[in-house]
Structure formats: structure tokens, C-alpha cells
From TrEMBL:
Its cofactor is pyridoxal 5'-phosphate. It is an enzyme of class 2 (transferase). Catalyzes the reversible interconversion of serine and glycine with tetrahydrofolate (THF) serving as the one-carbon carrier. This reaction serves as the major source of one-carbon groups required for the biosynthesis of purines, thymidylate, methionine, and other important biomolecules. Also exhibits THF-independent aldolase activity toward beta-hydroxyamino acids, producing glycine and aldehydes, via a retro-aldol mechanism. The gene is glyA. InterPro entries: PyrdxlP-dep_Trfase, PyrdxlP-dep_Trfase_major, PyrdxlP-dep_Trfase_small, Ser_HO-MeTrfase, Ser_HO-MeTrfase-like, Ser_HO-MeTrfase_PLP_BS, SHMT-like_dom. Keywords: Amino-acid biosynthesis, Cytoplasm, Methyltransferase, One-carbon metabolism, Pyridoxal phosphate, Transferase. Residues 6-381 form the Serine hydroxymethyltransferase-like domain. Its EC number is 2.1.2.1. One of its GO terms (molecular function) is pyridoxal phosphate binding. Homodimer. Pathway: Amino-acid biosynthesis; glycine biosynthesis; glycine from L-serine: step 1/1; One-carbon metabolism; tetrahydrofolate interconversion. This is Serine hydroxymethyltransferase. It is found in: Cytoplasm.
Length: 412
């Protein structure tokens, strides 16, 4: 990463980038939705493709000079199709939230009903949380998980029969278990609903063959490309051929303008990486690492929501440790360990000061960290939580964190 021109022209932005680079290098990044892209992805992202306007789709653009842009976007589409066994792919959504909104606009009329997971049980804001504009336009009904931490399929069926949703929505941001897509499809067929999955968090684990793939089963699947999939910040919609036209129209011209083609090219590069056999090994290791963290935390009497993990993340309920998620996040920050505070199922506390923390392994695994490091890191997290008011101890842990990160350089 050469920032020669920038360092001379804009010292303030250069300084912000350099400081952030150092923060990423010297810290343990455990926010489960974050990752480190490869230098090849970064190069495509920073390429001259950012200069081009290209409203429309490959072969059907509103601007001239799109022949090479078409090549890049077609490669992204074809690689995504192969990776997920998709009939149709739209790679233009700018991120996960716009991808979801475009699908709602494509498939719903104002007032139509969507059945989605409650936010505190692992759902996402764009799955109908009352603070979103979508919740003002459409009627979102929410299902939850059982007390044992499984998706409550029985409740989904009861609610589906009662509310006759146009869409049944699965796929979550803080839920750590596998999803039975076939079961959902059977329920949807009984009530004539369209099936939609938001696989933003687990797309890389699906691409790496480690988790169930809803794409061949479901009507529509949305994702981001920057989480476990390890691509640039962006979104994508995959669907059955019968929905292709209305989905494409909803993305452009319905909702977005000119696509970000530098970003789309970077997605294509990330998909090429995900098609390599080594990506399977990466996805497997993400999950192994998360399992080790689960064991280590359980041994130390931490309460893991949903009783454990089948994917890359853990949601930890801190009530028995007598601190909030916010306090834990702030103490961990001081020790160079980045997690995010998070609501737990039916959390009595507020989103800004919830009962839990959410953490995951994709970014650490990209650095090459494995079981041995996970055991050490779980011990540090526990020590931070025990010593949260002892700044000297937190600084000591930070020193050890920095020492460990030096063995796993980010961009060599
Ligand atoms: N912000 C993402 C996450 O952290 O899960 C979801 O949009």
C-alpha cells in the first residue's frame, strides 16, 4: 500500500489512515462482521474504475465506454453464481441494507407483511426494526428463538399461518447457530410466502462449504461482501430466475444510481479468492477458532447465548459477571481487543448499554491465528473483564496483545 502522493498532498487524511493502519495491526479485531481484505482486493478497490459512470447492466448501459466495465461486472456475476450456485446475481447493491431494501421494494407493496427475526434474538435492523423507514412502509412481524437458543420453527409456522406474510425472512447478525432452510421453505410453501435469506454474516462460511447454502432453495438471498466473504465493503442479491427482472429493476433505476464499478471489480477479485481451495481451509478454521473460544469461555463460567456457536460468532450474556456490554467493550478497547456491545435475547437494557458483547473470529483467522492463540485471547478477555477497573492491568494486557500481533503481520 503505497500512499506517496497522499502523504504529500493531504497530511491529515494520510495521518488518519496511518493511525488506523497501526490500530488494525496492533489490535485484536474481534467484531464478527469485520475482516481484512487481500492486497489484490485493495488494488482493485483503489483502481481507476472509480472514474466511470455505468448506469444499467452489462450490455444494457445508459452511457458509452462501458465495454471494460462490462467485463469486470460480468466476471463478478459469473464468479458469484459459481460460488453460491445461484441462478441470477446482482452485484450492484452498495451494501447489505440497500440490498435488503431493494428486495422489499421489488417484492412488496406498502402494507405487505414480512415475518423476520426479532433484533434482540439476532435479527438485523433492516429486518423490520421500528426505528427503520421500512417499518413505516411494511408490516413486520417478529419471531424469536426458543429458550434453548434454537430458531423457533413452530412459532414461525404459527405466525405464518396467522399473518400470511408475503416474505418469510431468515439470516441474522447476532445468531450463532445453523439454519434449516428446507424447513423454512416448507412453511413458506404452506402459506404461499416468498423465502428470503440474509446471509451477510455467514456468506464466507457458505462459500467455503462449511454451512448450509440457502441459494439453491430460497427465492431470494442477500448478502454483504465484506464480512466472512472477505471482499470489499458492498452488497449483493442472488435470486431465482423468475425474480431476476424485478430485482434488477428495483436496484436500478428503482433505488440506486450509478454502480460503484471499482467496488464491483474488487468483489470479483474476492470471489476468485473464495473459489480457491484454500478458502475452504480458511472458513473451516474460522469455525474451529470460534468453537475454541466457546469452550474457553464456558470453562470460565460465561453464559453463551443460544448455548454456543455453529458459525463464526459468539454472543455473550454478561449478567452473571456484573457488568454491561458497554463496560466490557470499553475495558477491552483499553487492552487492544475490539468487540461490540450487543443486545441479548429479550434484553431488559438499552441498545447503547446492553447486557452482552458479540465477538467473532473471521479477522483473527485471516491473520493466521489458530487454536493456540484463541486460548490465550479468551484468557486475556476474561482477565480484562475481571480487572476492568484496573487500568494498569489493562495496559499490561495491551502490551501482550501488541506482542502477539507482531507475529501475525497484516500486510507484509
Ligand atoms: N453492522 C453489521 C454487523 O456488525 O453485523 C450489520 O449491518
Amino acid at each position: 500500500m503505497n500512499h506517496k502522493k497522499l502523504s504529500k498532498f493531504d497530511t491529515k487524511i494520510y495521518s488518519a489512515i496511518e493511525k488506523e493502519k497501526q490500530r488494525q495491526e496492533q489490535g485484536l479485531e474481534m467484531i464478527p462482521s469485520e475482516n481484512f481484505v487481500s492486497p489484490a482486493v485493495l488494488e482493485a478497490l483503489g483502481s481507476i474504475l472509480t472514474n466511470k459512470y455505468s448506469e444499467g447492466y452489462p450490455g444494457k448501459r445508459y452511457y458509452g465506454g462501458c465495454e471494460f466495465i462490462d467485463d469486470a461486472e460480468t466476471l463478478a456475476i459469473e464468479r458469484a453464481k459459481k460460488l453460491f450456485k445461484a441462478e441470477h446475481v446482482n452485484v450492484q447493491p452498495l451494501s447489505g441494507a440497500p440490498a435488503n431494501v431493494a428486495v422489499y421494494f421489488a417484492l412488496l407493496k406498502p402494507g405487505d407483511t414480512v415475518l423476520g427475526m426479532d433484533l434482540s434474538h439476532g435479527g438485523h435492523l433492516t429486518h423490520g426494526h421500528p426505528v427503520t423507514y421500512m417499518a413505516k412502509i411494511f408490516n413486520f412481524i417478529r419471531y424469536k428463538t426458543t429458550s434453548a437458543g434454537k430458531i423457533d420453527y413452530k412459532q414461525i409456522e404459527i405466525l405464518a399461518k396467522k399473518h400470511k406474510p408475503k416474505i418469510i425472512l431468515v439470516g441474522y447478525s447476532a445468531y450463532s447457530r445453523e439454519i434449516n432452510y428446507k424447513k423454512i421453505q416448507i412453511i413458506a410453501d404452506k402459506v404461499g410466502a416468498i423465502t428470503m435469506a440474509d446471509i451477510a454474516h455467514i456468506a464466507g462460511l457458505i462459500a467455503g462449504g462449511q454451512m448450509n447454502n440457502p441459494v439453491p432453495i430460497f427465492d431470494v438471498v442477500t448478502t454483504t461482501t465484506h464480512k466472512t466473504l472477505r471482499g470489499p465493503r458492498g452488497g449483493m442479491i442472488m435470486c431465482k430466475k423468475k425474480w431476476a427482472k424485478i430485482i434488477d429493476k428495483a436496484v436500478f433505476p428503482g433505488f440506486q444510481g450509478g454502480p460503484h464499478e471499482n467496488n464491483i471489480a474488487a468483489k470479483a477479485v474476492a470471489f476468485k479468492e473464495a473459489l480457491e481451495p484454500t478458502f475452504k481451509t480458511y472458513a473451516k478454521q474460522i469455525m474451529k477458532n470460534a468453537k475454541i473460544l466457546e469452550q474457553e469461555f464456558k470453562t470460565r463460567n460465561y453464559k453463551i447465548c443460544f448455548n454456543g456457536t455453529d458459525n463464526h460468532l459468539l454472543l455473550i450474556d454478561l449478567n452473571n459477571k456484573n457488568l454491561s456490554g458497554k463496560e466490557a467493550q470499553e475495558a477491552l478497547d483499553k487492552a487492544g481487543i475490539t468487540v461490540n456491545k450487543n443486545m441479548i435475547p429479550d434484553d431488559p437494557r438499552s441498545p447503547m448499554d446492553p447486557s452482552g458483547i458479540r465477538l467473532g473470529t473471521p479477522a483473527l483467522t485471516s491473520r493466521g491465528m489458530r487454536e493456540k492463540e484463541m486460548k490465550i485471547i479468551a484468557g486475556w478477555i476474561d482477565q480484562v473483564i475481571i480487572n476492568r477497573q484496573n487500568d494498569k492491568k489493562l495496559a499490561e494486557i495491551k502490551k501482550q496483545v501488541v506482542k502477539m500481533t507482531k507475529k501475525f503481520p497484516l500486510y507484509k
